[in-house]
Amino acid sequence: VNGAAERDASSSSSEAVDAVMRAGGPRLVGLLQRTESRLVELAGGHGSTLARHATATISAGGKRLRPLLVFLTAGDAIEPAGEQRLVRAAVAVELIHSASLVHDDVLDAAALRRGAPTVVAAAGRTIATATGDLLFSRAFAELVTGGELEDVRALSTAASALATGELIQRADAWDAAIPLERYLHRCELKTGSLFEAACRLGALSGGADERVTEALGLFGRRIGLAFQLLDDVLDVSGPASRTGKARGTDLLDGTVTLPLILAREDDPQLAQLDVRALRTPADAERVCDRIAATGALAAAKAQALDVVAQARAGLPQLPSSQRRALELVAEGVVERYA
Ligand code: IPE
Ligand code: IPE
Ligand code: MG
Ligand code: MG
Fold first, then answer.
1. Is 190 a pocket residue for ligand 2 (Cβ < 6 Å)?
2. Cα atoms in the Cβ-side hemisphere of radius 13 Å centred on 168
3. Over the stretch 178-196, which tens digit does the pLDDT of each residue have?
4. 237 falls in which pLDDT band (50, 70, 90)?
5. Confidence check: pLDDT of 11 > 60
6. Phi, psi for residue 219 in degrees, rounded to 5
7. 287 by DSSP, 3-state: which?
8. Which of 82, 114, 236, 275 is paired with 288 by a 20 to 30 Å CA distance?
9. Which ligand 2 atom minimizes the distance to the CA of 232?
10. 317 in helix, strand or coil?
11. What phi and psi values does residue 189 have, to the nearest 5 degrees?
12. Residue 225 belongs to what H/E stretch?
């Protein structure tokens, strides 16, 4: 538990993201504070059982990376009425993210999240499922109060993609032979699509034209993909003191990720691996060591860095301060795993 608590303290303070906050000044801080209070307000409103777990989820922290992307992609040229739309969008995106984590922890049978017991560990599947559902529904309720159909459409596209990605992950579980392309597609769906929606919603609120909105959406999709690739590397590389969970946790629930996909090309024994035969944390750690010995962790990281570079290269023309802020967020995604 200590490890997880430490991890949360360190992972929330990326140097690059701190630099973004300093550059964004009181306006950005104010937008994030409004987002925070609204999240707490919404989580608390639906009966005591759900309120307890939804509030615990929201209050346990999190880096609020997706709300930050909503604000940064919108730019500065927004009047107060526009800021309301922006905060609604940030709240809605973070609610979908939180909902997906609560459900993800049911699917992955995870014990800890953000340094605290998961809802499924604390209260069981039924309540965890309902808590996630509640958070999902509040996200759309929040957007609907603004009446912007495009915002609702962008977020519902992401929510569907996310669910599809999680289902593909379950369908592919225990299969050590899944093709690289299918793995990457799953990561884009389950993580890239919500980063994309954050950037699209920001762009739309900021009045960007269609071309810029598309380009910013693609930027989000790419850094979301890189973020997931690096999360998957970390699961294999550890150390546990940093991640707050044992190495190889993904393998133990059947989730085959980039490090193994790359390592199986170089190690015939890994190519033959029966993932179901891994029963204990020690089994999983042994496989992690074998994967590391092939050099696949460095190769996976390099692949993620390449995706971040593509994200930066594809940024549209923007005011220089806005561009710099988005580049810093892209750096922050990588820096967390340096
Ligand atoms: C965790 O996302 C889930 C993944 C997509 C890997 P975050 O790392 O953004 O989670 P919080 O919100 O900061 O806890
Ligand atoms: C990310 O997948 C979860 C979602 C995108 C819903 P993971 O299962 O890898 O995330 P963690 O490792 O539990 O945070
Ligand atoms: Mg998980
Ligand atoms: Mg993971």
1. yes
2. 20
3. 999 999 999 999 999 999 9
4. very high
5. no
6. -55, -50
7. helix
8. 114
9. 9
10. coil
11. -65, -50
12. helix 210-237
Residue/partner pairs of 281-290 with CB below 8 Å, 24 or more apart: 281/246, 281/248, 281/252, 283/248, 283/252, 284/246, 284/247, 284/248, 284/249, 284/251, 284/252, 285/246, 285/247, 285/248, 287/248, 287/251, 287/260, 288/236, 288/237, 288/238, 288/247, 288/248, 288/251, 290/263
Give dist(CA 282, CA 101) in Å, integer: 26
pLDDT band at 20 (very low <50, low <70, confident <90, very high): confident
Q: Where are the alpha helices (DSSP H) in 44-124?
A: 48-59, 65-74, 80-107, 119-123
Ligand 1, pocket residues at CB < 6 Å: 62-63, 65, 114, 191, 227-228, 231
* pLDDT beyond 90 at 267: yes
Tell which one of 7, 227, 242 to mutate to probe ligand 1, the residue whose CB is within 8 A of the most ligand atoms.
227
Report whether residue 253 contacts ligand 2, using a CB cutoff of 6 Å. Answer: no
Nearest CA to ligand 2 atom 7: 104
User: Does residue 232 have a pLDDT over 60?
Assistant: yes
Q: How many helices (H) and strands (E) does the chain have?
A: 18, 2
Average pLDDT of span 6-35: 76
DSSP 145-174: TTT-HHHHHHHHHHHHHHHHHHHHHHHTTT
**The two structure tokens encoding residue 270:** 């890994």
Could you tell me the two tokens for 99? Answer: 């909902």
Q: Which amino acid is at 119?
A: V
Torsion of CA 311, 312, 314, 315, to 10 degrees: 120
H-helix segments, 12-61:
15-43, 48-59
The answer to whether the predicted template modeling score (pTM) of the entire model surpasses 0.90 is yes
Q: Give the integer Cα–Cα distance in Å for 213 and 200.
A: 6
What pLDDT score was predicted for residue 337?
62
